[in-house]
Specification:
The protein is an alpha/beta fold and 210 residues long. Helices cover 32% and strands 20% of the residues. This is 4-diphosphocytidyl-2C-methyl-D-erythritolsynthas e.
Amino acid sequence: MKAPERVAAIVLAAGASRRMGGRNKLLLPFGSQPLVRHVVTTILASRADPVLVVLGHEAEAVRAALAELPVTFVHNPRHAEGMTTSIQAGVAAAPADVLGYMICLSDLPLIEATEYDRLLDAFREAHARDPACIVVPEFEGRRGNPVLFAAHYRTAILAEERLTGCRGLVQRHPEHVVRVPMPTDHILQDIDTPEAFAALTERTPGQTPR
């Protein structure tokens, strides 16, 4: 792949999992490996390049869970302030020549590499027509993650003041938003609570909660 065609994956793995009852959800077992390793391994199997993982809460433990994977680690010293700071840390660390950024949540373990590639392909097609495109996945009309931003928005992302992500950026540029229908609800199945994790493991019989 030519360098200018690259789309960086920015994996947000800095959160404190406050709703998980004191456990770091990224380190919970998903099959034979920690949840975060499963997610990052899947992203690595896609055509995203490079893959940057933003660390913060329990950074060393999360880094250890991703040992030997070909990723770039980015530390976010402001992670406690909100998700936006992690997005900004990842975007700031991404190579200058990428077409854009795929903002990946690390608690969406059902998304498959082919689904990431579906979004990456849609982004590249949209970018050829509109260098300011934003790609948003949908399932039955419900928006999910990951969202992909053209590098056109780098300065705007780094200046974003809302601390809950870049949803405001999407809302401010509806004329550039491309909605991509997805074949499954995997883009919606994030894990925030012990109940959500239990439901996920029931849905995926090969996974065993502890």
